[in-house]
Design brief:
Elements (H helix, E strand, L loop, with lengths): L8 H8 L3 H11 L6 E10 L2 E8 L4 E7 L10 H15 L20 H12 L13 H18 L5 H26 L3 H14 L1 H20 L1
Antiparallel strand pairs: 1-2, 2-3
Helix pairs in contact: 2-3, 3-8, 6-7, 6-8, 7-8
Length: 225
Amino acid sequence: MSDPVASKSGSLCMYMKNHPDTLVSYVKYFGKVEDSVLTAEMSSIDSKGMTLLYKLESGPLNTIRVPFNPLLSGYDHVKPRLLSMKAEALEGLGMLKAPQLTTFRFPPKAAMTPFVFLAYFYLLSPPPPGTTFLSIPVTTLDAFFSPAHAFRHLTGLGFSFRTLSAIICAIHGAEGLYTWSLCRRFVKATVVTAAYVGCTVLFGFHIWKDLKRRVQEKRMENVAK
């Protein structure tokens, strides 16, 4: 199967000749070239990365390969990715201020987290047969949790309530720390930081993924100005 980006490499390289400063920023940031770069050009591009030629103030022409992570899935994703990488490079080189968010946004998908938790505990930590709870008949509870016991018997997966709770708390605690590290860089208000960290601990990865998405949107806006 042909590479959808490599087939357009010639036209993309021609287009990028009009953006030499962007190519120089790619070389310096992604190529980790600390010396003064005089010129840079793109010699090829495909779904896995781009090859750049550059010249320093002294010395011959050099070549670096800048990989794409994740890989490009199609030609339509080339321009957004290159703009995103431009913003990242300029920010990393200190030529563009890091985006600063002043508001909190709750992603709708995060509202599903409590239901996911219930599913985890239902399937992985059901009470043993014969358990009583309030005034609910034992037979009713056993019937309700029988699919969960069948799942555990079939897969061999299962944890005690305390163990599963500890695992989930550890994961969400780590995600909360990661969100806090993002907020230190990209969130201006303390209250907003607290909202992001707290909601990440409660609702998980949807919160920090949306935070990163908002940062990326802001970057793109800054680059487009």
